[in-house]
Amino acid sequence: MAPWALASAHIFSRLPDKLANDLFAKSRLVKIAADQTLFTAGDPGDGCYRVESGLMKVSVISPTGSERILAIFGPGSLIGEFAVIDGQPRSATVTAVRESLLRFISRTTYQEFVRQHPEARDHIMMMLIQRLRDTNSIVAAASFLSTKGRVALAMCGLAEAFGQDLGNGRNLIKQKITQNEVAAMAGVARENVSRTLNEWMRQKLISREGGFYRIENRAQLEREAET
Q: Among 30, 12, 32, 31, which Cα is nearest to 22's?
């Protein structure tokens, strides 16, 4: 699984519905415009956000100024949730890909919530452990992948996070994603992404229409993600 496919696997996802509703009952709405930055790496970790609508991206900038996209978050995802636990500064920058509506809960609100609902700690701890296991698997897999494998992993992650099943192993990625964004996800040069995607289009492994990518053979693409 690609890291950006973990968009819905946040640390509160194991909470029973009633507890989750109680947690966000005191949240406040935040509206953010497309291309607006929600927070920057190094900013205070004062709380977390749940995406109600829109699309957000998490990225880091290298010393040379290149961007690496770590995750893309759609509705239902949580952003910056570790900050409500440890209060540490933000480790990455989060920007709106399109106009988005978020719900914010402060660290103070979270601390009061777990005091009132101590049983929530076990649910959250189990999710933290799962996140760590997933991250370890991702890092280990990506370390040995070829350029094509990294691009395939990015496309499979997008299909898992935002795909619409069209049947017969076909998936429509229902978000408009640029080659620059795929390159930033895969950690490879845009020219390599362009060359790889064009090759796959000639092979009819993927297609593109109206700015949307469509995976024509998901099983084959997953095999590419293992090379």
A: 12
Helices (H), 96-206: 107-116, 120-143, 147-162, 179-186, 190-202
Report pLDDT digits (tens) over 167-219. 999 999 988 888 988 988 888 899 999 999 999 999 999 999 888 999 999 99
Distance (Å, rounded) from C-alpha 71 to C-alpha 131? Answer: 14
8 Å CB contact between 75 and 8:
no
pTM of the full predicted structure? 0.74
> First vs last Cα of the chain: how many Å apart?
14
Half-sphere exposure of 55 (CA within 13 A, CB side): 13
DSSP bridge pairs for 165 = 171
Contacts (Cβ under 8 Å, ≥6 apart) of 103: 24, 27, 28, 29, 30, 49, 50, 52
Query: Any idea what the Cα angle at residue 146 is, between residues 151 and 72, rounded to 5°?
Result: 30
- The whole-angstrom separation of Cα 218 and Cα 52 is 29
Q: Give percent helix, percent strand, percent coil of the chain, each to the nearest 5.
A: 40, 30, 30
